[in-house]
C-alpha cells in the first residue's frame, strides 16, 4: 500500500490498520468521559450549585483558554523525541482530576464557593487535556494515510457519536431519577473510570518514530504564522470559534431553563443528533475525499449559522418542542461536516515535518478565540435578558437575541475560507453536483 503522507516508510500497513482500529475503540470509551464531563451533565451540575450566566460562560470557556499550552507541549514532545508516554501522562492527570468534581459536595466548601471551585477544576483539568489532544491529533495525522483521512475520521466521529448517544441516555436516566447531587457524583465517577481505561489503550497504539530535536518554542509559535496558507486557515479558525462560542455556552441552559426540558429529553436530543451523525459523518467524509474539505466546511458552517440558531429560536417562539428535534438532525448534518473537515484541513495545510507545531498553533488559536467569544457571551446575555419583546403571538427573549447574533456571525465565516488553498478542492457549483450524486448513490 502506498501512503502519500509518508506513513508507509515508517509503519507497515498491518500496524497502521491495527492502530486505526484501536483508536476507534479508545475513542469510544473516552467519549463517555467527554460527554459526562461536558454538555447537559456539567451544566446541570453547575445549575444545581447555583451558577449564573457568568459562571456558565466561564465553565464553557476555560477549556478553550487551556489550549494555550499546546505549543509548549509540542515543544516538549519534540525534545523528548516521542509522543506516546507524554500523551498517556497528560490524559491520566487531566481525567483523574475529575474525581475531585465527584467529591465536591463532600468537601468543606461554603455553598457559594462550589460553583467557582468547579470552574477552577475544569480549567486545571483542561490544561492537561488540551496538551493530550494536540499530541494525539498530530500522532494520528502521521498514522492515517492522507487519502483515507476523510472517510476514517468521519467513520470514527460517527461511531463515537453513537457511543456518546447511549452514554447520554444512561446519564439522563440517572440524573432524572436519583437525587442531586448524588446523581451527578455517580455519573462523574463512572466517567473517570472509563477515561482511565481509554488512556491505558494509548499504550497499545503504534507511534511513528520521531527524532529528538532541541525545543524551539519561538519557532513553534511563529512558524505557523509565516506560512501564508496556514495563516489564512488560522484567520478562519479565529473567527469561526469566536462566533460559535457566542451562543454555545447557553444552548443547554436554554433547553433546561427556558424550554423546561428534562435531562432525559436533552439526552434524547443528543441521541437523535448522534444517531444521524453516524451516517452524516461517514458520508461527509466520503464527500470530502472527493471534493475537498474546504468546500464541505463551507456547507457546514453556513448550515450551523442558519439552521441551528434558527430552530432554537423557533422552538422558543412557538412553544413547539418539535423544532428542538429538528435542530438535532441539523446539528448532525452541520457538525458531521465541520468536525472532520476542519481537522483534516488543518492537517492538510500543515507541512508534515512540522505538523505537531502547526497543530499546536491551531489548537491555541481556536482556544483563545473561542474563550474570548464565551467570555463575551456571558455579559452579552446578562445585558440582553432584560430586553424582552412580547406580542400576542410570541415572546422574544435575550436568549433569542444572542442566538441570532451568533448565527449571523457563523453564517459569514465561509468568506474567510475562500483564500485558503487546498489541493483537489473543487468549486461550490461542482461540489453541489458531486454531493447530490453521492447522496443518490450515482457516484
TrEMBL record:
Family matches, as InterPro entries: MFS, MFS_dom, MFS_trans_sf, Sugar_transport-like
GO molecular function: transmembrane transporter activity
Positions of the Major facilitator superfamily (MFS) profile domain: 1-424
Transcription keyword on record: no
PROSITE patterns: MFS
Entry's transmembrane regions: 24-45, 57-78, 85-109, 115-141, 153-174, 186-204, 233-256, 262-284, 296-317, 323-347, 359-385, 397-417
Domain of life: Bacteria
Keywords of the record: Membrane, Transmembrane, Transmembrane helix
UniProt protein name: Major Facilitator Superfamily transporter
Organism: Deinococcus peraridilitoris (strain DSM 19664 / LMG 22246 / CIP 109416 / KR-200)
